Amino acid sequence: MKSLASTILVSSLSFPLLAGAQRPSSVSICDFYAEKLFGNNTALTQRLVQTHILNTAIIGNYTSPNVGVSVTGIAPVSIFNGTEVNLLKYFDAALYSTNDGKTNAGVAKLFLDDGGPTPISMNMASNGNVNSAQYILLTHVWEYFGVLLNCSKQGTDASSPSYAGNPSMYEVHKYMNLDPYEQGWFVRQLALAAASIGFSSEDTSIWFNTMTGLFSSRCSPPTVVLPGEPELQAICIHDSCPLAANANCALYAKSFAPGVANTSLAGNYTKTNTSGIANATATGGYIAPSAAVPSVASVAWKLGVDVLAAVLVGGVGILTL
Ligand code: HEM
Ligand SMILES: *[C@@H]1O[C@H](CO)[C@@H](O)[C@H](O)[C@H]1NC(C)=O
Ligand SMILES: *[C@@H]1O[C@H](CO)[C@@H](O)[C@H](O)[C@H]1NC(C)=O
Ligand SMILES: *[C@@H]1O[C@H](CO)[C@@H](O)[C@H](O)[C@H]1NC(C)=O
Ligand SMILES: *[C@@H]1O[C@H](CO)[C@@H](O)[C@H](O)[C@H]1NC(C)=O
Ligand SMILES: *[C@@H]1O[C@H](CO)[C@@H](O)[C@H](O)[C@H]1NC(C)=O
Ligand SMILES: *[C@@H]1O[C@H](CO)[C@@H](O)[C@H](O)[C@H]1NC(C)=O
Ligand SMILES: *[C@@H]1O[C@H](CO)[C@@H](O)[C@H](O)[C@H]1NC(C)=O
Ligand SMILES: *[C@@H]1O[C@H](CO)[C@@H](O)[C@H](O)[C@H]1NC(C)=O
User: How many Å lie between the centroid of ligand 6 and the Cα of residue 265?
Assistant: First the structure.
């Protein structure tokens, strides 16, 4: 368990050294790259920094600026550290994994309901339906990244609103039962996305370590990210996630793998080691693993992108580009 954290920390030093002026420590990451990449440091260009990082991390590198770093994105089924990861199934209503805030269990929810990848590849959140789940998800994550990246002008004009989502990352993700491979893969794509638009090696590592430190250890104590009260922030909450240094597991509910809502979409869905499948109607809220081994459906659902296997396997070298 500890090896995950140390692997990531060691590996994070191996992002490539990219050319360009050094960021003065008095200038935030967001402000620096808003100016450097988009010619001016405004609320709008700060929003563009957020947009390019998230959109690239979802669908892979798609546009300029790109300094020659290739990004696969989280959309395709991939191999991370020798294990298959398929994050799409949390976004396409394959699993009972969404916290809708009113059901005391995960629900299946389609987040790709307003254009899917096409508007994302045009720096947009969705085709423009501001009530769509896709629009709300992307804009909320952009806004949250603005907080994490210290965008100084966020919230000062309409082009870059303040974060409007749930302040607790645990609450948002708690029915997903995300494991270190899923979390590690997403964080890796987000770090690569930043590197691909021109973040320096040092700033890419800061970004990587910010995400890993806040969200990748289970039972982490309440932490302030947004202005206000501390909140539970652990996103990686599967039993196999590394335990936070000052863990307080009593504050977190026991986490169970989400049940399958759509077998053809869920495909080869397995959790490496979990305590059971969540089931709100079963005694204790879950079904033991032996009674609920997820199905291996047709492999046709795969998007055919297992090519990463060749470059991503290995231990400490997993983040070497
Ligand atoms: C550094 C890691 C991550 C960060 C900072 C992050 C951040 C966020 C934020 C800010 C939201 C919006 C919350 C809201 O609208 O209230 C969100 C939603 C979501 N995230 Fe993550 N996330 C991370 C990792 C992951 C991973 C690994 C997955 C797995 C696929 C994931 C899947 C989702 C989904 C499906 C939603 C929509 C949930 C909903 O609206 O109910 N996230 N995330
Ligand atoms: C930079 O942004 C400021 C504030 O929005 C604006 O007044 C100025 O004209 C912009 N400069 C350029 C070169 O776009
Ligand atoms: C992604 O980045 C790589 C490396 O710069 C480049 O070869 C490739 O053409 C890019 N892909 C797209 C779709 O922009
Ligand atoms: C399903 O995933 C497991 C774990 O990654 C892998 O060993 C197995 O080969 C996969 N099966 C199919 C049919 O893809
Ligand atoms: C944002 O600012 C805080 C406070 O100065 C700092 O601790 C943190 O590392 C910064 N985050 C990033 C991503 O630079
Ligand atoms: C499962 O997903 C497929 C593809 O989106 C869809 O055609 C089908 O109706 C879904 N089945 C159920 C039971 O929701
Ligand atoms: C799963 O993880 C738990 C907690 O770390 C451990 O007690 C259990 O033995 C593991 N089960 C399997 C099958 O690996
Ligand atoms: C929960 O378990 C009940 C009884 O076994 C079953 O009918 C139902 O489909 C399960 N629900 C989920 C979400 O797995
Ligand atoms: C990746 O694989 C290595 C070697 O098997 C292992 O030590 C490490 O913990 C794995 N990392 C993750 C994220 O599981």
Answer: 7
Residue 116 CA, ligand 8 centroid: distance in Å = 30
Those residues whose C-beta lies under 8 Å from the C-beta of residue 177, and which sit 6 or more positions away, are 97, 237, 238, 255, 256, 257, 258, 271, 274, 278
Q: Is the CB of 70 under 6 A from ligand 3?
A: yes
What lies within 8 Å, CB to CB, of 200 at 6+ separation is 17, 18, 20, 22, 23
pTM of the model: 0.85
The letter for the amino acid at 263 is T
Write out pLDDT tens, residues 16-36: 444 457 999 999 999 999 999
Residue whose structure tokens are 């191999």: 79
Residues with CB under 6 A from ligand 6: 262, 264-265
The residue nearest atom 23 of ligand 1, judged by CA position, is 235
- Ligand nearest the Cα of residue 300 is 4
Q: What is the CA radius of gyration of the chain?
A: 19
| For the CA of 74, the nearest atom of ligand 1 | 30
Task: Give me the count of residues in the chain.
Answer: 321
Which residue has the CA at smallest separation from atom 5 of ligand 9? 315
Of 95, 91, 89, give the one whose Cα is nearest residue 77: 89
Boundaries of domain holding 175: 2-319
Q: Which of 92, 124, 125 is nearest to 111 (CA)?
A: 92
How many distinct structural domains can be found in the chain?
1
